[in-house]
Task: inverse folding
């Protein structure tokens, strides 16, 4: 019997320096039943030229060049509608797969029934030059950001705490079909995907490092919680979705933890309009604490705290 088809959606935006390494890491997989779609979201840096060269070298690539920049969520949805695979990988073209990633993930996935919709793995982080920075879960454990790696019903876990390295995920096609793809009104997809998919599907963890995630100066993780952070509005909208999805007090407690965290980060990063939204939602779902009131004082007085937060973050997470 032929192994299941896996569709790898390679999304490129201004990755001219990295797209060749990323795409060839997919082409070179030990698993061969692949549909590889490379889509460019109207890059301005020569990425298209690199993609066209790759197409000549590897005719099996399916290429989609968008006429205008539409953002990651909408670009993914455009390509996802062309995908035919049983399993789908959303793969940014600044990351790199190990040669056996897809083979190992498919073999692992096939052990489970339809209730498991997502398989994720460990990962390593590399810099712009491909040099090793750290291991994902080793870092989270060392900094005491997690005490275990959740599996199965992870709804409360993904709602309250970041722990999944998004680029490592392989997703069952029907999960995305049921969700209607990504929410195109959002500026980023991870949090919303985790919350909505985990409500109805289980997650499984494969304890291997199968993806090298590149940390760039303009990556979301490096531009998050800075003055003018454009992702906070999307995070707030996902919290509202979760409020409607919650089923019991445990779910509610997970949402409170997330909203309080986002409120604190919004104040400390001087994103006051977003802080107002989270503050209003927090008052609605929980009783305010002394800490909440102190943050409200800083928010209403617009006390500049972003530099202090930056230094704390460097000391805590470096």
Result:
């Amino acid at each position: 019997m032929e192994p299941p088809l896996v569709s790898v959606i390679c999304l490129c935006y201004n990755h001219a320096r990295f797209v060749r390494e990323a795409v060839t890491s997919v082409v070179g997989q030990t698993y061969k039943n692949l549909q590889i779609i490379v889509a460019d979201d109207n890059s301005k840096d020569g990425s298209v030229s690199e993609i066209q060269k790759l197409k000549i070298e590897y005719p099996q690539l399916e290429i989609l060049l968008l006429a205008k920049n539409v953002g990651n969520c909408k670009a993914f949805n455009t390509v996802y509608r062309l995908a035919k695979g049983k399993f789908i990988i959303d793969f940014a073209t600044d990351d790199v797969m190990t040669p056996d990633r897809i083979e190992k993930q498919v073999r692992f996935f096939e052990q489970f029934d339809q209730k498991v919709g997502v398989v994720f793995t460990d990962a390593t982080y590399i810099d712009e030059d491909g040099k090793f920075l750290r291991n994902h879960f080793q870092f989270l454990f060392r900094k005491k950001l997690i005490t275990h790696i959740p599996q199965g019903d992870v709804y409360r876990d993904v709602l309250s705490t970041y722990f999944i390295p998004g680029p490592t995920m392989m997703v069952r096609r029907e999960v995305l079909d049921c969700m209607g793809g990504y929410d195109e009104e959002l500026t980023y997809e991870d949090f919303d995907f985790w919350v909505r998919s985990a409500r109805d599907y289980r997650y499984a963890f494969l304890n291997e490092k199968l993806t090298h995630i590149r940390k760039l100066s303009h990556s979301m993780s490096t531009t998050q919680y800075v003055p003018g952070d454009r992702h906070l509005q999307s995070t707030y909208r996902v919290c509202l979705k979760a409020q409607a999805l919650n089923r019991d007090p445990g779910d509610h407690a997970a949402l409170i933890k997330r909203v309080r965290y986002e409120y604190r980060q919004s104040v400390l990063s001087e994103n006051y309009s977003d802080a107002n939204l989270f503050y209003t939602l927090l008052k609605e779902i929980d009783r305010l604490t002394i800490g909440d009131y102190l943050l409200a004082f800083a928010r209403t007085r617009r006390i500049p705290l972003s530099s202090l937060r930056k230094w704390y973050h460097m000391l805590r997470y470096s």
Summary: The first helix runs from residue 19 to 27. The two ends are 48 Å apart (CA to CA). The CA atoms of residues 8 and 89 lie 5 Å apart.
